[in-house]
Design a protein that fits this description.
The protein is an alpha/beta fold. About 45% of the residues lie in helices and about 15% in strands. The protein contains eight helices and eight strands, in the order βααβαβββαββαβααα. Helix 4 packs parallel to helix 5. The N and C termini lie close together (about 10 Å).
């Protein structure tokens, strides 16, 4: 008998798919793929893109219990969390969310998610273009590779501690980041979002079988 699972993708503008006028971002590519597979006779995976531009883990914790309660499939849920790109940004000399608070917030979010599923995936932070590495941009935010590596390490540690899955977009991007990122140096372009979908595809494939 076919199963109907829900895939809940929490994150910021990179989860939302900002600046991708062609595909709508990596989550939307996966959504279309899952629908196509369902039409071909696979299990049903209903994907919800719950990305909000500019969101940090502080915002995630405020809305996560409500979002999960509203979208809970009795046949199974898969939860993805892609955070850190905003948390690690420094504005007027302070992190939006400092490293220790970031880790604590993710751990709290994992506990909330575990009330609904054991299928939890944490998503790495993408690299940034060298043109904005350590540079204060128009929004007043400063991001650096050093901080990205630090926050990604925290995400990896949580995955190891809690036996969660880690989706490593960083490694897939880092060598070709200048051609996979959009003009702002933070968000992927269409090619970059396509690469993310390609990396994540095997993850959702197993829920469609």
């Amino acid at each position: 008998m076919k199963k109907m699972r829900y895939g809940l993708f929490f994150g910021d503008s990179i989860t939302y798919g900002e600046y991708d006028g062609v595909f709508g971002g990596w989550v939307d590519i996966l959504k279309r793929y899952a629908l196509q597979k369902y039409n071909e006779g696979s299990n049903e995976l209903i994907i919800y893109n719950l990305g909000i531009g500019g969101e940090t883990t502080e915002g995630l914790l405020k809305r996560m219990p409500h979002e999960m309660e509203a979208r809970n499939s009795p046949e199974g849920n898969i939860i993805f969390m892609g955070y850190g790109a905003n948390d690690l940004a420094v504005k007027e000399g302070s992190y939006l969310v400092n490293p220790s608070q970031f880790k604590a917030n993710i751990l709290t979010a994992v506990e909330l998610a575990q009330q609904y599923t054991q299928d939890i995936y944490l998503v790495s932070i993408l690299p940034i273009s060298k043109t904005i590495d350590g540079v204060v941009v128009a929004s007043g935010k400063l991001r650096s590779t050093e901080e990205i590596l630090k926050y990604n390490q925290a995400i990896k540690e949580i995955c190891a501690e809690k036996s969660l899955h880690y989706i490593d977009f960083y490694s897939g991007f880092v060598d070709d980041k200048e051609i996979l990122l959009s003009k702002d140096g933070v968000h992927p372009n269409e090619k970059g979002y396509g690469m993310m979908a390609e990396i994540a595809l095997p993850v959702i494939e197993k829920y469609l079988e």
